[in-house]
Structure formats: structure tokens, C-alpha cells
Amino acid sequence: MTDSIDEKFREWTRGKRAVSARVAVYEKIRDIPYAVIPEINSSQHYAQILAVGRGSCTPKHFLLRDMYEKLGLAVLYVVYPFRWSHLEVDYPVHLQKLAEAIPISYHLACKVEIG
Fold this sequence. Notes:
This protein is an alpha+beta fold. It has helices at residues 2-13, 18-30, 49-52, 57-70, 93-101; strands at residues 74-82, 105-113.
């Protein structure tokens, strides 16, 4: 799978300067359609997101880390607590009640040091 990561990295960054390459990588990964696929939701199999063409936040963050490190950026994983009911979304009343009943969740993200 490393070959597919390298291939996509070259495709997405070819001929771009540093800032444009960072933005391109971020946007390409952001735009991969969201889907929860348990088989690729791990640090061992996340690269399959490129073959499947969809994936959830966790494999997207693993892929983003790989590609940003290829750009020479230092990447740390961070975990943020959040509540679904605190998102700025106008849920229908029945969904708002469900969102309020969900306990705090945690979201993996990448923190990138840029200069």
C-alpha cells in the first residue's frame, strides 16, 4: 500500500510549491467521501482508503500524517473531546434529543507544526 500512497502523493503535489502542496493534500483527503469501514479504520490498513475511495476520519488522519511527513512537516496526533449536541447544526427536534443523550465523544486530528 505504500506504493499507492507514494503515487497519490506525487499526483497531488507534482509541480506545486510548499503551501500549494499542503493545501492540495488536505483538500484531496478532506474530499474523500465519508464512510465507516471497520476493516480500514486502523493504523495498519488505512492506506486502503485510496483503493476503496471512501473512509472515515481516522484513516483520513493517518493518510494526512503520512503525506504531510513526506512534505517535511512534523505531525502530532491530538484528540479533542466534543459533543454532538454542541455542533452548530439545526437538528430536527427528535435528532436534537438524541444528540443530547450521546455522551462526550473523542475525535482524532492532526496537529501540524508549520514554521
